[in-house]
């Protein structure tokens, strides 16, 4: 992205889109009972409360009544339907790391569960969410890397087995799966939101676009959580922002104590933010802080800086929800990227346009 002399002035920036991740699948309800919803009504009400506080994108996971993360497609369908009826303006973004389990005894169900095919079931959600997050390139995702014992020691993550499971977690996202997942999501009218860990991921997304595997608006999140991803070094996310196409949007995401400072920088730069208990359950002083309070904090900071917060309709326009493009050439042009090189063409192709 290019920064002009007046790019830091809030009147020249998009309104702030706040994504909230209020379901915190890594935590057990007893870790933060005041803020971890368990029943269906509590989970739906949490979405309503987050929207009323100023968040317009809901990063969605579901819990069963026993507090465990749900693997039932039917439960996700039910929750999306309820949230859609209560807050129709909110952008529902389903987390792409979900593994659905078979609900019946039909032949082949278990085999389907054990294959990559299960993750493609996100394209079968009914009603369809506006977005599903997607990773590219298989990556280590050690979410414990930037946490210290003072943060997790009094939670269920201190359980040695759970600690090791999250420490050794890997996000599988090989080329064949990514291409097929993009095809199915866009075929279902669902916009992929790319969750990227480092510059090689950004370069992979550009190749996917140039080779025609994705034709649509480009909404990116830089995920700076360490443990195989970029760490929260400002040089990392500034390079990511610098190389993001001019026509894309960038959200900055981090973990625990880094969430607030990185979100504050994102607001000042004209980027977008993500908060919620999936990212941190603490304020800067080490006190428990719920998702709604985190949203309200970002709203206050943004307004202090003179930048207004997007409502649901404005967030949909910024993210271009419902838009797809007809060709690779149109996609490159809409995103402000240089066209593909024609055979025999020399130098940088954009010079030919000039």
Q: How large is the radius of gyration?
A: 20 Å
Q: Care to count the β-strands?
A: 10
Spatial sequence of strands, sheet with the most strands: 1-2-3-4-7-8-9-10
Total number of helices: 14
Order of helices and strands: EHEHEHHEEHHEHEHEHEHEHHHH
Main pleated-sheet profile: 8 strands, parallel, barrel
Distance between the termini: 20 Å
DSSP helix fraction: 25-40%
Organism: Blastomonas fulva
Pfam families: BKACE
Keywords: Metal-binding, Transferase, Zinc
Protein name: Transposase
What this model shows, in words?
By secondary structure, this protein is α/β, with parallel strands linked by helices. It has helices at 40-53, 73-86, 109-113, 117-120, 149-152, 160-167, 175-187, 199-210, 234-243, 259-269, 291-304, 312-319, 328-334, 350-353, and strands at residues 18-20, 57-60, 91-94, 131-135, 139-140, 170-171, 191-196, 219-223, 249-253, 272-275. The strands form two sheets. An eight-stranded parallel β-barrel has the order 1-2-3-4-7-8-9-10, surrounded by eight helices. Helix 8 (199-210) links the parallel strand 7 (191-196) and strand 8 (219-223). Helix 1 (40-53) packs across helix 2 and helix 1 packs parallel to helix 11 (291-304). The longest helix has 14 residues, at 40-53. The chain is globular and about 65 Å long. Keywords: Metal-binding, Transferase, Zinc. This is Transposase. Its cofactor is Zn(2+). InterPro entries: Aldolase_TIM, BKACE.
């Amino acid at each position: 992205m290019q920064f002009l002399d007046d790019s830091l002035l809030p009147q020249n920036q998009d309104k702030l889109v706040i994504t909230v991740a209020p379901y915190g699948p890594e935590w057990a309800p007893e870790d933060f009972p005041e803020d971890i919803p368990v029943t269906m009504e509590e989970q739906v009400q949490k979405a309503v409360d987050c929207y009323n506080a100023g968040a317009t994108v809901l990063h969605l996971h579901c819990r069963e009544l026993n507090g465990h993360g749900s693997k039932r497609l039917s439960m996700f369908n039910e929750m999306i339907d309820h949230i859609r009826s209560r807050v129709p303006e909110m952008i529902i973004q389903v987390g792409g790391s979900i593994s659905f389990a078979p609900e019946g005894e039909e032949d082949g169900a278990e085999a389907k569960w054990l294959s990559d095919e299960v993750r493609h079931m996100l394209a079968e959600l009914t009603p369809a969410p506006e977005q599903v997050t997607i990773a590219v390139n298989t990556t280590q995702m050690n979410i414990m890397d930037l946490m210290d014992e003072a943060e997790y020691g009094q939670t269920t993550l201190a359980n040695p087995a759970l600690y090791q499971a999250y420490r050794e977690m890997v996000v599988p996202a090989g080329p064949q799966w990514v291409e097929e997942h993009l095809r199915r999501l866009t075929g279902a009218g669902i916009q992929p939101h790319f969750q990227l860990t480092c510059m090689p991921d950004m370069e992979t997304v550009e190749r996917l676009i140039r080779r025609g595997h994705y034709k649509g608006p480009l909404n990116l999140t830089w995920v700076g959580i360490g443990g195989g991803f970029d760490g929260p070094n400002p040089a990392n996310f500034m390079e990511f922002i610098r190389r993001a196409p001019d026509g894309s949007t960038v959200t900055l995401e981090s973990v625990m104590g880094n969430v607030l400072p990185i979100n504050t920088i994102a607001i000042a730069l004209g980027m977008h933010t993500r908060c919620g208990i999936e990212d941190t359950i603490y304020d800067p002083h080490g006190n428990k802080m719920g998702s709604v309070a985190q949203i309200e904090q970002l709203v206050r900071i943004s307004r202090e800086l003179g930048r207004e917060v997007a409502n649901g309709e404005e967030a949909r326009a910024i993210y271009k929800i419902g838009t797809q493009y007809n060709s690779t050439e149109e996609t490159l042009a809409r995103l402000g990227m240089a066209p593909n090189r024609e055979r025999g063409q020399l130098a940088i192709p954009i010079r030919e346009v000039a």
